[in-house]
């Protein structure tokens, strides 16, 4: 009996492709962060060091911190961190791909994985970034770091909820509704949850008045660009790998002559 090529491949096969796509995308994101972000990190550290050495009370502590983790070690660890993070995100995307397999069309060969990556980029990156953009060294009160970390993670969850609300709004209108109406319902559901989240969540205004605005936003855009490269890479690579897997399975299903 011919193999049904429209079924989802085994979970392990999908997971391996997700991990591989995430690892490669993570290394690409690391390369982008190194080229686009490291110069701004160096400039921010220089400002932090100048301020620290100007204050005798903190100069010694700053020197001790420099001895603990060198900049060379941080640069090398950048690729390790982005590679491992990318692999983890690719694994999560592959898991979601399998769990949502019943909702996909039979001829889907990875396109829904690309949509999942786009949803993750929107909900877990862009929505939190607009509320809590990344800050370079020398920006932020150390006393509030735990609070800022918790609120950022909560904003990530709310961003994903907003994406889910948009998806729910799109489906709730009905398959027979005009496309524009379904799209409007999706955008409305997404914006409603996002707007409420922005109003409810606290804000942090901790950027020093004398910190260069150009450096600040250059760092933030480089940070956002790193995430865009990561999730775009995961989506495209995973879709390509799943397309190749479907073609391979279709080839093995052909009867021998």
From TrEMBL:
Pfam families: CbtA. Keywords: Membrane, Transmembrane, Transmembrane helix. InterPro entries: CbtA_put. It comes from the Bacteria. The chain crosses the membrane at residues 12-35, 78-100, 112-130, 150-168, 180-201, 221-241. The keyword Membrane applies. This is CbtA family protein. It comes from Micromonospora trifolii.
């Amino acid at each position: 009996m011919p193999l049904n090529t429209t079924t989802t491949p085994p979970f392990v096969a999908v997971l391996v492709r997700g991990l591989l796509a995430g690892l490669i995308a993570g290394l690409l994101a690391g390369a982008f962060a190194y080229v686009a972000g490291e110069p701004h990190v160096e400039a921010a550290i220089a400002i932090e060091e100048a301020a620290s050495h100007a204050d005798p009370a903190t100069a010694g502590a700053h020197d001790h911190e420099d001895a603990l983790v060198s900049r060379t070690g941080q640069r090398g660890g950048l690729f390790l961190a982005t590679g491992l993070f990318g692999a983890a995100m690719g694994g999560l995307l592959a898991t979601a791909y399998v769990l949502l397999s019943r909702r996909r069309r039979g001829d889907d060969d990875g396109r829904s994985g690309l949509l999942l990556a786009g949803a993750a980029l929107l909900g877990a990156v862009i929505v939190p970034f607009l509320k809590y953009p990344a800050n370079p060294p020398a920006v932020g009160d150390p006393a509030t770091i735990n609070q800022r970390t918790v609120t950022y993670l909560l904003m990530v969850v709310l961003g994903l909820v907003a994406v889910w609300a948009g998806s729910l709004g799109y489906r709730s209108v009905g398959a027979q509704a005009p496309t524009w109406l379904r799209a409007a319902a999706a955008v409305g559901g997404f914006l409603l949850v996002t707007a409420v989240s922005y109003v409810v969540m606290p804000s942090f205004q901790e950027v020093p008045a004398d910190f260069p605005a150009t450096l600040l936003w250059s760092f933030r855009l480089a940070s956002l660009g790193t995430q865009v490269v990561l999730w775009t890479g995961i989506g495209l690579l995973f879709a390509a790998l799943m397309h190749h897997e479907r073609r391979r399975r279709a080839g093995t299903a052909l009867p021998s002559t």
